[in-house]
Design brief:
This protein is of the alpha/beta class. Helix content is about 40%, strand content about 20%. The longest helix has 26 residues. The radius of gyration is 17 Å and the shape is globular.
């Protein structure tokens, strides 16, 4: 049996992506902090296809030890797709930002994603059909006022993932590496970034996508030969693109 791993699966894009992959008949490993939400998602998946095997793992990936423990605990599973979706944002001027929150964001958005990507590449580098998809942001290609540190974490995700895709292509690897860059999406993201109990994008931003629409874009990227699935922060159109960041290959004898 083969599995698709989705981190940050308890809500938003991760939640809807799990449902979308379930419609494709994919067995799933769902990872997030909130076990009750994962259980609810598992019940929804059973309505789509009760024959799927759905494994839930509740853990906090901002803790480094938990990141390694998660991967180690999945050693016996054949993982055809790994989706690093877990992450959160922060809206504040750099001089005013809560550094405890920023430290956690750096651990989750950058460290956990890098470790999990690296471990997955080591094991599945030359496995036909293997895919790694990292979720960045339109803010990973465009710096936004009062979101400088968050955008910087997503610039890292974009550059790291595009670079990894180029590197593996040069090695002739069978694995495909891709990055999804959403723009404003109706999820819990803004609520957590602002530290509010409730928040809606309705009437605040002129355009946005639903999490279900973004999951549809995720599937388009999954099916494509392109590296980048990009949502314009201006037009909100979704495009499948080649890597954007310049990449300098080293000629070896």
């Amino acid at each position: 049996m083969k599995y698709t791993v989705i981190t940050g699966a308890s809500s938003g894009i991760g939640y809807e992506t799990a449902l979308a992959f379930a419609t494709r008949g994919k067995n799933l490993v769902l990872v997030a902090r909130r076990k009750e939400e994962l259980e609810r998602l598992k019940s929804e998946i059973a309505k789509i296809n009760s024959n799927l095997d759905v494994v839930i793992t509740n853990t906090d990936l901002s803790v480094t030890k938990n990141v390694y423990d998660l991967y180690k605990g999945l050693r016996d599973y054949k993982i055809e797709t790994w989706i690093n979706n877990a992450g959160f944002g922060n809206f504040a001027a750099v001089g005013d930002q809560n550094l405890n929150k920023i430290e956690t964001m750096l651990h989750l958005n950058i460290e956990a994603l890098t470790i999990l990507s690296s471990l997955y590449v080591r094991d599945y580098l030359n496995i036909e059909g293997a895919q790694l998809i990292n979720v960045s942001s339109a803010g990973g290609y465009r710096i936004i006022e009062d979101s400088v540190t968050y955008c910087a974490t997503k610039f890292y995700v974009s550059a790291f993932t595009e670079g990894l895709a180029q590197e593996l292509k040069g090695l002739g690897s069978k694995m495909k590496v891709k990055v999804l860059a959403p723009a404003s999406t109706e999820t819990e993201f803004a609520k957590h970034a602002l530290g509010l109990d409730e928040f809606s994008l309705e009437g605040v931003v002129p355009k946005y996508h639903t999490a279900k629409e973004m999951a549809g874009f995720m599937l388009e990227l999954y099916d494509s030969e392109k590296v980048l699935g990009y949502v314009s922060g201006i037009t909100y159109e979704f495009e499948l693109k080649d890597p954007i960041f310049p990449y300098a290959a080293i000629k070896r004898n």
